[in-house]
Amino acid sequence: MQKAKILINKGYKPDTIEFHRSDPAEITFVQEDSSVCLRQVQSKDLNFQIDLPVGSEKTININTDQTGEFNFSCGMGMFHGKVIVK
């Protein structure tokens, strides 16, 4: 299982994650920011939308069947990150 952790604090740290194709993968988002904008993470590319209250963390599975770059952002689209599957 490929695993990555993204801290949410004035943006996404790191803002780019790389996974290998066809290996199971997951990202854990750790919420450390109290701004309203960053309380949600969404991705049309990866088909998820999650709410993250301050102090919470949530893990999502990432589909690695296809190679490419897949974007995610905060609920307001002001902060961005991406998942690269090679």
UniProtKB/TrEMBL annotation:
InterPro entries: Cupredoxin (IPR008972), EfeO_Cupredoxin (IPR028096). It comes from the Bacteria. Residues 2-85 form the EfeO-type cupredoxin-like domain. SUPFAM superfamilies: Cupredoxins. Transmembrane segments: none annotated. Pfam families: Cupredoxin_1. This is Copper-binding protein. It comes from Xylocopilactobacillus apicola.
